[in-house]
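Hi R.,

Here are the chain sequences for the assembly we discussed:
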Amino acid sequence: KKINSKASQLTVLDMEKDEESTFDYDKLIIATGARAIVPPIEGINLEGVVTLRSISELDRFTSAIDSIKPKNAVIVGAGYIGLELAEAFHILNISTTIVEKFERILPRFDPEMAELVHNHLIENNIELILGDGIVSINGADKATSVVTESGRIIDADIVVIAIGVKPNIELAKDCGIEIGKTGAIAVNTKMETNFKNIYAAGDCCETIDRVTGETTWIPLGDIANLQGRVAGDNAAGGNAEFPGAFGTSVFKSFELNVAMTGLSETAAVKAGLSPISVSMTKGDRARYYPGGKELNIKLIANKNDGRLLGAQIVGPGVSDKMIDIAATALLGKLTCQDMENADLAYSPPFSPVLSPMIVAAGALSSRLKK
Amino acid sequence: KKINSKASQLTVLDMEKDEESTFDYDKLIIATGARAIVPPIEGINLEGVVTLRSISELDRFTSAIDSIKPKNAVIVGAGYIGLELAEAFHILNISTTIVEKFERILPRFDPEMAELVHNHLIENNIELILGDGIVSINGADKATSVVTESGRIIDADIVVIAIGVKPNIELAKDCGIEIGKTGAIAVNTKMETNFKNIYAAGDCCETIDRVTGETTWIPLGDIANLQGRVAGDNAAGGNAEFPGAFGTSVFKSFELNVAMTGLSETAAVKAGLSPISVSMTKGDRARYYPGGKELNIKLIANKNDGRLLGAQIVGPGVSDKMIDIAATALLGKLTCQDMENADLAYSPPFSPVLSPMIVAAGALSSRLKK
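And here is the predicted structure of the full complex:
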């Protein structure tokens, strides 16, 4: 509820008992996380309108599914959560529409890679309404339909608001702790805030984009976990650093495994870099070995020196493996020329003789020579 | 058949027609590969005694299986080929014994990691006879049994000699091309031999161990492929380099995926380094997500600076993914401290929140601090 940094005291409000308690601290770690963004629109409090972030929200969500037995779902937002939910609804035989204010899904991906996922959603009977936000939700006490900016009315007995999250910074802000330009708590690589003995970690605080060196905000579970470890280590007298992240992520959308790390080509241009890229489709096993699957790979490098900037992988194959190779290459500041001669593990059940990542790096490297 | 390097001529013998032809060359690439080592023991030419390296050997092998319909197999040698074959024989319901002259299987792995595979073979009813070579093969025209150094006689109607390969260097040697201390053709990073305009690539030539910087010989298909590309590029006027390899490899043994890269702890000590290591067993997915499998990881780093030296992974889980992360980390000369904060892709179908590779690196890093 309140931090008194001068007295090194934290005041906590027990919501159930409505009682305040005050604790002395030597070191304080703020790990308040983030919460789902909920737009203040008409009908937002109707039964059947849910968010999906905390465990209590999950409980509310599953009860809603159980009691409503929905036939039509609208998912607002075409990010990771929205797309994963679309698959879950499809499995439950719920007719599903995704409404997204942006013109396309997966804005962190380059358009042609996002399009592969887009088309796959359509093939799986997910309706996509893009470039259109929701303005209100109809219903007496239960949601019955959603109204969009363009005036479309879409039947929906369950509406999931998945338009993103925002950091829980109120506690820090009230105490005067510096909030960064991303809107999350500013920290250094030791996870220290600008207040002595106060750390922050997780989705409530910023981090460094290790490709651009810029401050950014990446609310992902694994990064939160790493940051928490560093903050805890330092609060306990250690000397750990969290050097930042590449925003590496992966998710499953029906038969596709969708992964990215680092900058998209779009993001690289926006960051003032001169990227070049290659895209290709490759199998993830030796051709003659059963069970191999396809991968669409996009690999992006700096035109000047070949340094890898990012990768995107979409396909039924082992996107997670490929993206972890790419993320490790980014960590090592490797170039496409380096990766062209990477020594990755080959045998037919596991890989083609040259990993798709090596082939893509080789193609990039050839383009640089021209 | 013969290289006349002064005249830039190559003489080829057509074995079928028994005719010699001579070709002029501007650039010559020697890609003569390697062949299976065949010990000159009694009975080696009996029917049912086979090697498994070339396509013609494969044809001979499959015909032998078809005509003999073997009940008992002896595999001589407990390397990758021998172990992969044991599984194939098991599937064909052939009772299988592996005879290996060394005291243990998989000498490139550390003993405790090799032991996991050893135990798994036993569980799958493969008999292992270690520290015992074969001295002769009994039989009139068909093999019937194998005799070992210790005097054991093992019934065998098929005997596979899989004790290793040696480089085909005769053509190069006859012409006076330098043979390295490993016994394979010496080349520089451009894949040039010591003779002008003559290159070598693949299993017939040496390479650099990128951890130790020493010259080594790694007859693996993916390395041969990479070397061939570099030799071809340079022979065609390009300027490519093959910087060496880590000996990254993976194979499947029944339910285990077995992978390694870089130096084992044993090899690191032998190379005069001071390694430290951690070993752990981890799941390859979030605990609550179905289908996750276990991995046994061993990660080895330099005690002085934490630089990663090698990794070994054995388990039913995604060993191939983990080893490719490790191999890329070696390529980037990364330390365990670097890898402790790697940004690898997390979501429950693909990984625990922290990749086993991050957890292992973190454990190594903690040990270094002590």
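Residues 221-235 of chain B form the longest helix (15 residues). Chain B has a mean pLDDT of 95.

Let me know if anything looks off.

Best,
T.
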